[in-house]
Amino acid sequence: MADRVRIFDTTLRDGEQSPGNTMNTPEKLRVARQLEALGVDIIEAGFPIASEGDFDAVRQIAETIKESEIAGLARANNEDIDRAWEAIKAARMPRIHTFISTSDIHLKHQFRKSRDEVLEIAVNAVKRAKQYTTNVEFSAMDATRSDRDYLCRMFTEVIDAGAVTVNVPDTVGYAVPEEFGKLINYIVTNVPNISQAVISVHCHNDLGLAVANSIAAIRNGARQVECTINGIGERAGNASLEEIAMILRTRKDVFAVDTRINTEKIHFTSKLITAITGVSVQPNKAIVGANAFAHESGIHQDGLLKAKLTYEIMTPESVGIPKSSLVLGKHSGRHAFRERIAEMGYTLGDKEINLAFKRFKALSDVKKDVYNEDIEMIIMDEIYKVPERYKLVYLNVSCGNTTVPTATVKLDIDGAVVQDVGVGVGPVDATYKVIKRLAKTNSKLLKFSVNSITRDMDAQGEVFVKLEENGYTVIGKGADTDIIVASANAYVNALNKLEYMKQNKSEDV
Ligand code: KIV
Ligand code: ZN
Q1: Where do the Pyruvate carboxyltransferase domain residues begin and end (predicted)?
Q2: Residue 99 and residue 116 in one domain
Q3: Is 143 exposed, middle or buried (0-12, 13-18, 19+ CB in 10 A)?
Q4: Which of 139, 144, 232 for mutating ligand 1's site (highest number of atoms within 8 Å of CB)?
């Protein structure tokens, strides 16, 4: 059997803490369930001491997830460790992940502590965590800019204190693959008790090398990789889970290691993160970008028609992109729709299928060809529905090159229909101004983006908006063949989410 690399997913911690990727508690729970289904070994659910909201999300994830270990992050002090344990203790497989910086740069400028002092703090932290669980991970922050012998001394002592995983973060994304591989090899040879721990790596992507560095580390003995879906994370992000999993699978001949990842669930997991955060991946992103499996050039297409092997190193199906690209249309029935959903790898209940089918029918009335991407969008919308305090009942917009953009909007708020009219610098601005007035919301619009879901002229426009109010941040999503309607739906969806968060006191961090 191939040697196994453990996948430690930090989408909900390092990913979520990066700008634009905030998630609320129900969203984090949904992601955690998907990561479990994906086959992630360890889910880093959050940083419990950071806020009540983070604590609560980690606690709920710990109570829900059974097949993956649940890690809570803690700085190397008693308060953080105790709090992390409180949050994760209900998990079937809890893990405390404690960390402290080891580079002289951080010690001198940030912590103003000596190497010996930091060593003692780290050892005490691991001992504290060990009182709660045998599953303790220690991270040496900024390891790649740390003195190698000090790093080895640190790892030797924390392993003696009980750490079963030692993590080597390239916190600032400074390492290059050959050098990073050598560092791992140095640790393997110079930490005498290293056989009692798993070596982990955690690479940031500032120089675009996070995945390459992680792979170099695996070559040299690392057996845990910390990564995120779509590579989201601080600054330029973390190593991307999907790339690592597919490199190890596709080039098993080179690495002779594998992961427990169900690669067929990669596509949906990536879409889920985009739907929740509103942050799309670039079209040419490896594995999950819209063009990752699209062959445009005539020579390539010719080769592919003759034999897939000519230009295809992995199949789209292996990452969960549905095989059938046959479009559905207004004559497609419930049966075909249900089959397509199953083929796309989604498991929906009857109620969700019925709602999705209704939306599909409405769409196929106005759009000739309904593609998998359209269906995906409908499903995401149905899955993420929150109770609707606000409903868009009517929207009429007039605009043009000689007209003052004017919007008339009717909203159903708590069952009562209200109406108003207003102008703006453009049709979306006019619509948003009226909705804002009708909903009497104090929320601030932080972001607005429009994408086309498919390539055709009657394509649906997909709109994401980000709203903020009293520290709560939400992403609203709307799609329609009319982008002004899509924009209005996205705004109303965000208002409903804000309402839901306020009612459920779900806190943002
Ligand atoms: O980048 C980093 O060093 C981290 C640690 C907390 C592991 O995220
Ligand atoms: Zn990090």
Answers
A1: 5-267
A2: yes
A3: buried
A4: 139
Tell whether 190 and 165 lie within a shared domain: yes
Say if 188 falls within a structural domain.
Answer: yes
Q: Whose CA is nearest to atom 8 of ligand 1?
A: 14
Structure tokens of 91? 């998990």
> Is residue 331 domain-shared with residue 241, that is, in the same domain?
no
Which domain range does residue 491 map to?
390-504
Whether ligand 1 lies within 6 angstroms of the CB of 17 is answered as no
Query: Model's pTM, two decimal places?
Result: 0.86
Whether residue 263 sits in one domain with residue 132: yes
Residue 436 class from Cβ within 10 Å (0-12 exposed, 13-18 middle, 19+ buried)? middle
Which atom of ligand 1 is nearest to 238's Cα? 1
Residue 82 to residue 508: CA distance in whole angstroms: 22
The predicted-structure confidence for 298-308, as pLDDT tens digits, reads as follows: 777 777 777 77
60 with 73, same domain: the answer is yes
Over residues 124-151, the pLDDT tens digits come to 999 999 999 999 999 999 999 999 999 9
CATH number of the domain where residue 220 is located: 3.20.20.70
Same domain, 151 and 194: yes
Q: How many domains does the chain have?
A: 4
Looking at the fold, whether 263 and 161 belong to one and the same domain comes out as yes
169 pocket-lining for ligand 1 (C-beta < 6 Å): yes
Residue pLDDT, tens place only, 202-232: 999 999 999 999 999 999 999 999 999 999 9
pLDDT at 428: 97
Are 99 and 124 within 8 A, CB to CB? no
417: left (phi over 0), alpha (psi -120 to 50) or beta: beta
Task: Report the nearest-CA residue for atom 1 of ligand 1.
Answer: 171
Residue 285 lies in a domain: no
**pLDDT tens, residue by residue, 29-50:** 999 999 999 999 999 999 999 9
